[in-house]
Specification:
Pfam families: PB1 (PF00564)
InterPro entries: PB1-like (IPR053793), PB1_dom (IPR000270)
Number of domains: 1
CATH architecture: Roll
Domain PB1: 7-95
Oligomer: single chain
Organism: Hemiselmis tepida
CATH superfamily: Phosphatidylinositol 3-kinase Catalytic Subunit, Chain A, domain 1
Protein name: PB1 domain-containing protein
């Protein structure tokens, strides 16, 4: 069976934690370190670091893309542990999609590129 919407195999050679692809608007960034892998709160902090246009006042909804292409909430450590377990078994990257409730898609796209000179990694 083909996995729809599942990122190709990406492995972090420094640990057993899969790479993490984070998407806001149409911009996708890669987190290759594993500093986020034990805590949903740390993951939220890392997301705010790689997308500095997200302010502390903004509500951020983090979802991961499962093997069927569905967006599943990632709101606590148990959710993160489950997501990591599944992507390890599938041997693929963890694909995360950021939602900013109340923010238009156009504004979200602008936020995705704020704080970087080229729209790439800060």
């Amino acid at each position: 069976r083909q996995n729809r919407g599942t990122p190709e195999l990406l492995t972090n050679t420094m640990s057993s934690v899969p790479d993490c692809l984070v998407k806001l608007g149409t911009l996708q960034r890669r987190m290759a370190d594993d500093s986020w892998s034990d805590s949903a709160a740390v993951l939220q902090q890392r997301i705010r670091q790689i997308f500095p246009g997200i302010t502390d006042e903004m509500d951020v909804v983090v979802k991961w893309v499962d093997e069927d292409g569905d967006h599943c909430c990632l709101s606590n450590d148990a959710d993160l542990k489950e997501a990591l377990s599944i992507v390890r078994k599938m041997q693929c990257a963890l694909s995360i999609v950021i939602h900013l409730p109340g923010v238009s898609p156009e504004r979200a796209q602008k936020i995705a590129t704020e704080g970087t000179s080229s729209g790439g990694m800060p």
